[in-house]
Amino acid sequence: LSLSPSPGLGLSLSLSPSLKPKPEPKLHLVQDLLSILAEAGAEDGDGGEEGICARAVDMFMDVLEESNDGGGALPDLLVQAAAWVLGEYGTWSASRSAHEVMAELAAYAERIRHGGRSARGQNLRMIVTALAKLTATAGGCAGRIRELIEELSLHSDVDVQQRCMEMLVLSQRPGVYVAVMPMDAACEDIEVDESLSFLNDFVEAAARRGMPRYNPPDLDSSKPHDAAAALSSLAFA
């Protein structure tokens, strides 16, 4: 994986399809790549085949296809970067359909699932999220891909379970699905209501029913902490 200056695009993106054992890609390089693609995606917009995001999709697909076609396992960071890029921009490729992109991601997820390596949990989580994004932008998923999501909804990893269940529920409400997972929203600013004021009505209704209000613990670190008193309040079986 490399980034280098290019007179035409400002940079040149190259991803070696060779699956010979190599060191894990540098984290900072992967982060730089994803940042560049996110910014380029906001500008490309049209998804033209000459766009760097579309080229990145094709290169990551080349690597996934070779790996799925009898190649070795890919480095974790590369899998996670591929999942993010394909989930965000998988529909921008001029040479692959969204369903082809989903099929390759699903095939790699199957390999992780049957590999018995719990350390690859984050790879599986990100692939499921990529499939969820592509389902929203492509208008649905069916066949083996949907079966895979249904099977993974019973996975031992609770995070994987949740992502699959959310995908299955949202797929029953296409309008909500698209609103929750808009296309190319990587650079959108999200306003966070830290006070959670949208829950006020719910809290007040619960209080009127006699439910106790939340009483946060005293987190003032300047006060002395009596460890013995704290331990004495705990019950050990």
From TrEMBL:
Localisation: Endomembrane system
Membrane spanning stretches: none
Keywords: Membrane, Protein transport, Transport
GO cellular component: cytoplasm; endomembrane system
Keyword Transport assigned: yes
Keyword Isomerase set for record: no
Superkingdom of origin organism: Eukaryota
GO terms of biological process kind: protein transport
Family matches, as InterPro entries: Adaptor_Complx_Large_Subunit (IPR050840), ARM-like (IPR011989), ARM-type_fold (IPR016024)
The protein's name in its UniProt record: Uncharacterized protein
